[in-house]
Amino acid sequence: MSISSRPSVYIVLVNWNRWQDTIECLESIFRSDYTNYRVIVCDNGSSDNSPAQIRAWAMGQLLEQRVKNHQISQGTEVFFCTDCSITYIEHEYKALQKQTASELYKEEAKLILIHLEENLGFGKANNVALRYISQVGSIDYIWLLNNDTVIYPNTLMLMVQTAQTHSGITGSVLKFYANPSIVQTYGGGYFNHITGRVRTEQHTKPSHLDFINGASLMISKAVLEKVGLLDEQIFMYFEENDYCIRAQQAGFKMMVADACVLHKGGVSGGGSGNYLSWKNVYINKCYVMFKHYGIGVWVLFSGLAWLLNLINPQISTVKRRASLDALKFLFKQLVQHLFKGRQHSLFK
After folding, report:
1. Domains in the chain: ranges and CATH
2. What is the pLDDT along the chain (348 residues), one digit of tens a residue?
3. SS3 for 101-147, per residue?
4. In terms of CB atoms within 10 Å, which of 98, 122, 186, 233 comes out highest?
């Protein structure tokens, strides 16, 4: 297959005050064996001068910067690009909204930087890029990739090869950045709509998945056209579960490629010990369950789990706080659903 005949890919990164991670990710992308791609970086209103740093990297001006000692691909050091220049173009989000599809289609830069005025959250920021891509129109695949990842030269090629075998959503083998010998997940995991239990596949490459991990999620043009954008009610975490549920309802399947992505994990949300991270995970799970399945047995499972977190002395303070918030949210949603059902019965 010639380079010109290869499917076209847009790779989307969201950056928020983590330009070092984003540049390391970009550096690995621009070393890919696969070349028919463009990258969109949506900066979520960063306050750490991220846009200027990413711009300097694209211009080849970060001469002395080096990332932490991290060895991949048989000992090759990952470092900031110092001997090349990447063609790029910048957009302010407000100005971008006024541009026509024909104007955007003429842009030939490999890197597109979109500056948002504030932190819109993961879903909304990705949607800015998805709307841009929809306007441009000439695209085969879109790869939503966390900015706290590093890919191998053959990762994108393997992702596209698997995506071509089906029209759904493709994931990758995520391994821990700090210890690449350990698998974080084989693409994603399983989601029980009755109990609400989420289980990540960490042992074997599966033939079937219920959801693809949002750190590396590739969709076809057909998925974007039929399923649409990410749910903007979800600020961060669990948006991929919601999207995959909607995709499955539309008839699409989830597959995992033999493509490796190294994932730092949790940096945008402050890590696994961060209160807001757990709060978003718990509440967004509850939101997604109500959205798709209404009141069910899952309410008892989730409510009991959060109650146990409150009384378990071994559970961290941040998880107890998040569990209390989740219980309050669950109760509020139950009241609203029950009241809504009562209203419907009154007006029959």
Report:
1. 9-263 (3.90.550.60), 275-346 (no CATH)
2. 444 579 999 999 999 999 999 999 999 999 999 999 999 999 999 999 999 999 999 988 875 454 443 444 434 444 455 456 788 999 998 888 777 666 665 667 899 999 999 999 999 999 999 999 998 877 899 999 999 999 999 999 999 999 999 989 999 999 999 999 999 999 999 999 999 999 999 999 998 999 999 999 999 999 999 999 999 999 999 999 999 999 999 999 999 999 999 999 855 555 556 899 999 999 999 999 999 999 999 999 999 999 999 999 999 999 999 999 999 999 999 998 887 755 443 333
3. HHHHHCCCCCEEEEEECCCCCHHHHHHHHHHHHHHHCCCCEEEEECC
4. 122
Global confidence as pTM: 0.89
Residue reference for tokens 């690449």? 180
Q: Residue 29 carries which side chain, given as an amino acid letter?
A: I
